[in-house]
Amino acid sequence: MGHFQRNCPTRLARATGTSIAKSENESYMEIIVSGHKAACLLDTGCEKSMLPGKLAYGMQLKPTDLSVHAANGAKIPIKGTVRMQFDLEGMPLEAELLVSDVVDQMMLGIDWLTENACQWKFDERAIVIAGRQITLHSRPSRALIRRIYVEQPVVLPPRSVTNVPVRMAWNSFRVPATEWLKWLMEPKQLNSGVYLAHMLLPEKETSAAIRVVNVSPRPYMFGESACLGEARPATLLDPVSADRPLWQGDRPLGPVTEGHVINDNNQNLSDYLQPVIASLPSELSPDERVAAIQLIHDNSDIFSKSEFDLGRCDLVHHRIDTGDR
Length: 325
Known about the structure:
CATH class of the largest domain: Mainly Beta
CATH architecture of the largest domain: Beta Barrel
Largest sheet: 10 strands, antiparallel
Number of domains: 3
CATH topology of the largest domain: Cathepsin D, subunit A, domain 1
Order of helices and strands: EEEEEEEEEEHEEEEEEEEEEEEEEEEHH
Distance between the termini: 72 Å
C-alpha cells in the first residue's frame, strides 16, 4: 500500500538531488567522568576505544603511532592515548582510550569489552561487567550526524562573507561507504544578522570551511569549538539511474486539455525554464500542470538565466563612504 512521504517508514534525509536512508539504533551506557554525566557508546565494530578531546581536557596524553579509520575509509586524527577512570552505577572502571578532537562521544570498543570479559546479552538489552548486569539504553543511531565545530576563534567583519574553518566530528564510525556520499549543512540564522550558508561538505575529511554571512553593522565573533550545528549525509542521485524516482519532467507530456497540447521539450520553451518545469510535482493534475507552466511563463523574468544572471533586492542596505562628509 502506498503512503505519503512524510509518513514513510524508511524516511530519507534529503537535499535537492540527494538522499540516504537512516540507520538503526545504537546501545550506550550512562557513566560519570570527573563528576560529570556522559553517554558512552558500546560498539563491537570499533577496534579501539575512543574519547573526545573535550573530555580529555587537562589530562596527560601519551603519544601513539596507531592509525584509525572509519568504515568509509576516512582517517581519524589521533592526539594521543590516556588511561581514564570512570564510574558506572557506582562501579569504578577504567579504560585505555585514543583521544581525538573529531570524535563527539566516548566509544568503548571490542578492545575494552574483551579486556573486561564483558558478556553482552542482546536479547535482554543488557551487558554483564565484572559479574554485574547493567541495563543498556537505546537510541536512534547518530552515525549519520556530524556536529560542526569552529576550529579557531574567528571575527566576522560587518557586512561581509567569511569562510570559517571548522572541524567535522564523528558520532560513530559506522558510516556507509558510498561513492558519492557528501555531508549536507542546512542554512540557518545563527544570530541577529548572522546567517549560515547552505553547504555540501566532503565525505572523508575532518576539516572544512563553512560560509557565514554577517549583514549586521557590527562585527561578530565565534569562539574556538563553538558548535555551528549538524551536518547530515546525502548521496548524489545518478540522473540516468534506474533506482532514481521518475519525475514528471523526465517524460514528454501528451495532450492535457482538449485542443491544447503542451510538451516540455517544445522548441519555443526557453532553455532556462526547462529545469523549473521539470521539477514540478508529479502529483499535479493535467489542468494544474497547465496552469503552473503558464504561471512560470508569465513570470519568466524572475528566474535566473545563468549563474551570472544576478538579480537585486533591497533587503540589505550598504553605505559607501566617499569621504565627502
